[in-house]
Write a structure and sequence with these properties.
Length: 132
Protein backbone atom coordinates (compact mmCIF):
# COMPACT_ATOMS: atom_id res chain seq x y z
CA UNK A 1 0.00 0.00 0.00
CA UNK A 2 2.84 2.41 0.82
CA UNK A 3 4.35 1.80 -2.61
CA UNK A 4 1.05 2.66 -4.32
CA UNK A 5 0.65 5.94 -2.46
CA UNK A 6 4.24 7.02 -3.15
CA UNK A 7 3.77 6.48 -6.89
CA UNK A 8 0.80 8.86 -7.07
CA UNK A 9 1.69 12.52 -7.63
CA UNK A 10 1.33 14.62 -4.53
CA UNK A 11 -0.61 17.87 -4.57
CA UNK A 12 2.72 19.72 -4.46
CA UNK A 13 3.99 17.87 -7.55
CA UNK A 14 0.74 18.49 -9.40
CA UNK A 15 0.89 22.18 -8.52
CA UNK A 16 4.54 22.33 -9.62
CA UNK A 17 3.63 20.69 -12.93
CA UNK A 18 0.78 23.13 -13.48
CA UNK A 19 3.05 26.07 -12.70
CA UNK A 20 5.65 24.67 -15.09
CA UNK A 21 3.10 24.41 -17.91
CA UNK A 22 1.95 27.99 -17.19
CA UNK A 23 5.57 29.13 -17.38
CA UNK A 24 5.95 27.41 -20.75
CA UNK A 25 2.78 29.12 -21.97
CA UNK A 26 4.02 32.52 -20.73
CA UNK A 27 7.30 32.04 -22.62
CA UNK A 28 5.39 31.13 -25.79
CA UNK A 29 3.09 34.14 -25.48
CA UNK A 30 6.07 36.47 -24.99
CA UNK A 31 7.92 34.96 -27.98
CA UNK A 32 4.79 35.17 -30.15
CA UNK A 33 4.45 38.87 -29.31
CA UNK A 34 8.00 39.48 -30.52
CA UNK A 35 7.39 37.37 -33.65
CA UNK A 36 4.14 39.19 -34.43
CA UNK A 37 5.89 42.56 -34.33
CA UNK A 38 8.71 41.24 -36.54
CA UNK A 39 6.35 39.74 -39.13
CA UNK A 40 4.13 42.80 -39.40
CA UNK A 41 7.16 45.09 -39.25
CA UNK A 42 5.40 47.66 -37.13
CA UNK A 43 5.82 47.03 -33.41
CA UNK A 44 3.82 50.15 -32.55
CA UNK A 45 0.68 48.54 -33.93
CA UNK A 46 0.74 45.98 -31.15
CA UNK A 47 2.23 47.91 -28.25
CA UNK A 48 1.19 46.64 -24.85
CA UNK A 49 4.17 47.47 -22.63
CA UNK A 50 2.33 46.65 -19.40
CA UNK A 51 1.43 43.17 -20.63
CA UNK A 52 4.99 42.57 -21.85
CA UNK A 53 6.34 43.61 -18.44
CA UNK A 54 3.91 41.31 -16.63
CA UNK A 55 4.84 38.37 -18.87
CA UNK A 56 8.55 39.11 -18.46
CA UNK A 57 8.25 39.29 -14.66
CA UNK A 58 6.19 36.10 -14.52
CA UNK A 59 8.80 34.25 -16.57
CA UNK A 60 11.66 35.64 -14.47
CA UNK A 61 9.88 34.57 -11.28
CA UNK A 62 9.43 31.06 -12.65
CA UNK A 63 13.12 30.92 -13.55
CA UNK A 64 14.20 32.38 -10.21
CA UNK A 65 15.88 35.36 -11.88
CA UNK A 66 15.92 38.88 -10.47
CA UNK A 67 14.80 41.68 -12.81
CA UNK A 68 16.21 45.19 -12.64
CA UNK A 69 14.13 48.20 -13.60
CA UNK A 70 16.25 48.67 -16.73
CA UNK A 71 15.77 45.03 -17.71
CA UNK A 72 12.00 45.32 -17.21
CA UNK A 73 12.01 48.38 -19.47
CA UNK A 74 13.81 46.36 -22.14
CA UNK A 75 11.29 43.56 -21.60
CA UNK A 76 8.47 46.02 -22.27
CA UNK A 77 9.63 46.26 -25.91
CA UNK A 78 9.04 50.00 -25.69
CA UNK A 79 11.26 53.04 -25.18
CA UNK A 80 12.66 53.15 -21.64
CA UNK A 81 10.58 56.21 -20.73
CA UNK A 82 7.44 54.29 -21.72
CA UNK A 83 8.60 51.21 -19.82
CA UNK A 84 9.28 53.31 -16.71
CA UNK A 85 5.86 54.95 -16.94
CA UNK A 86 4.14 51.57 -17.22
CA UNK A 87 6.18 50.14 -14.36
CA UNK A 88 4.92 53.02 -12.22
CA UNK A 89 1.34 52.30 -13.26
CA UNK A 90 1.76 48.59 -12.46
CA UNK A 91 3.25 49.45 -9.06
CA UNK A 92 0.36 51.83 -8.34
CA UNK A 93 -2.09 49.09 -9.37
CA UNK A 94 -0.50 46.74 -6.83
CA UNK A 95 0.64 44.23 -9.47
CA UNK A 96 4.39 44.91 -9.26
CA UNK A 97 6.74 45.66 -6.37
CA UNK A 98 9.97 47.67 -6.45
CA UNK A 99 12.75 46.86 -4.00
CA UNK A 100 16.43 47.59 -3.62
CA UNK A 101 18.80 44.84 -4.71
CA UNK A 102 20.27 43.43 -1.48
CA UNK A 103 23.56 42.80 -3.30
CA UNK A 104 23.78 46.32 -4.77
CA UNK A 105 21.75 49.07 -3.10
CA UNK A 106 22.19 51.30 -6.17
CA UNK A 107 20.09 48.92 -8.24
CA UNK A 108 16.31 48.61 -8.00
CA UNK A 109 14.64 45.28 -8.71
CA UNK A 110 11.04 44.70 -9.72
CA UNK A 111 8.89 41.62 -9.29
CA UNK A 112 5.27 40.62 -9.38
CA UNK A 113 3.38 41.21 -6.17
CA UNK A 114 1.37 38.31 -4.75
CA UNK A 115 -1.70 39.88 -6.38
CA UNK A 116 0.11 40.24 -9.72
CA UNK A 117 1.38 36.67 -9.61
CA UNK A 118 -2.05 35.30 -8.78
CA UNK A 119 -3.64 37.32 -11.58
CA UNK A 120 -1.05 36.09 -14.09
CA UNK A 121 -1.59 32.47 -13.06
CA UNK A 122 -5.37 32.86 -13.34
CA UNK A 123 -5.05 34.39 -16.81
CA UNK A 124 -2.54 31.80 -18.03
CA UNK A 125 -4.66 28.94 -16.69
CA UNK A 126 -7.71 30.39 -18.48
CA UNK A 127 -5.66 30.79 -21.69
CA UNK A 128 -4.38 27.21 -21.44
CA UNK A 129 -7.93 25.92 -20.95
CA UNK A 130 -9.22 27.97 -23.89
CA UNK A 131 -6.43 26.73 -26.15
CA UNK A 132 -7.11 23.15 -25.10
Amino acid sequence: MAGASSSRPTAARQESGAQSSLLVLARKLYALRRKRAAIFGEADLFGEPAWDILLDLYIAHGEGKPVSVSSACIGSAAPSTTGLRWLGILVDAGLVLREHDPADQRRVLVRLSARGHTAMERFLAAAAAALG
